[in-house]
Amino acid sequence: MQLDFFPSRTLTLYMARLFVARIIAMLAVLVVVLLALDLLGKTGEILAVPGNGQREILTYAGLRVPELIASFLPYSVLLATLITLVTLNQNSEVVAMKSAGLSAHQVLAPLLLTALMVSVASFAFNENVVTRATATLKAWEGNEFAQVPSTSEERSNVYLTDGTDILVAQRLIGSGAAIRMEGVTWYKRDPLGMLAEQVKATSATFAAPGWKLEGVEGFDVATAETRKGSELVVARGLTIEQIELDGIDAETQSFFALADSIEAYEAAGRRTSELRAAWWHKISGPLSAFLMPLLGSVAAFGLARSGAVFIRAIIGMALGFAYFVVDNAALAMGSFGGYPPFLAAWGPFLLFLLIGETVLIRTEE
């Protein structure tokens, strides 16, 4: 039984095939171009490590491609929407559809259904591929491309606090009592909050309490003296549980894993607005692909001979890119508490959904 919202089965499949082919083509072009530009900047860093070669460059490319796909899939859907609709308009196919009694929403229905399926596939791809590739790539970059980590248990550039004192580690490996830091710097402050001492160490392990630094080299700010030692215990108030919480990266965790991390943060009395906004955005981000046909729909209508199709395509592109600008701005506002997490993640989507519907109804319905 066919729903009245959709045109005939033949027309639905025809438009869906056109749309999917253009999405794949645009995504491939964007990923290839952006990956080439990225490799121009990273190849030198990768090859600077002794022993690295073509294999490591290909490994980097393989880890970077999932991130690029996840980031630019909505852009690809937007561009594919404009190309598909402009082509149908110029070939008078949209005129034929409307002459057959189809409304503007029925003309767009196959594209909206296809975009919704793309959004679902994008969410699954992000959960199962992108998070793992991102975690591995960040760990490898944190190790300055010295070796490819076999797991994603490694974190890089970890920033921790113990009161007013700060502990920074280039790498954090393992979990629980076996956790280990490498490339450690300890910044000790006086009661006035001024830097009193800086201590660098090759590694640090949990001393229960505190963290035992090894290969110590310290600098006293007041006396300008440098001292060296084999071991030093610092940050006695910093526990393993605090480190595991501070090590949460929303980009490297799946939707359900991040939900568990947010619960742990809230149980510890920590601020969770940034993580919760990122958690909501794991749904609203992929779903933005569903919004693109609606924002680009203005390119489908209007007589091709009037010369206004190009202007309509520009308007559709402007609406689409405006959404991405507002979406990023809302997430930035949500990260420091300017917006509630739900509003930061869903506000732009709902706003541009209404804008797209308004433009479509006012101009075509």
From TrEMBL:
Record protein name field: LPS export ABC transporter permease LptG
Topology within the bilayer: Multi-pass membrane protein
Keyword vocabulary terms for this entry: Cell membrane, Membrane, Transmembrane, Transmembrane helix
Pfam families from the UniProt entry: LptF_LptG (PF03739)
Protein source organism: Parerythrobacter lacustris
Transmembrane segment boundaries: 12-37, 68-86, 107-125, 309-326, 338-361
Source lineage: Bacteria, Pseudomonadati, Pseudomonadota, Alphaproteobacteria, Sphingomonadales
The organism's place on the tree of life at top rank: Bacteria
Main location: membrane
Gene: lptG
Subcellular location field: Cell membrane
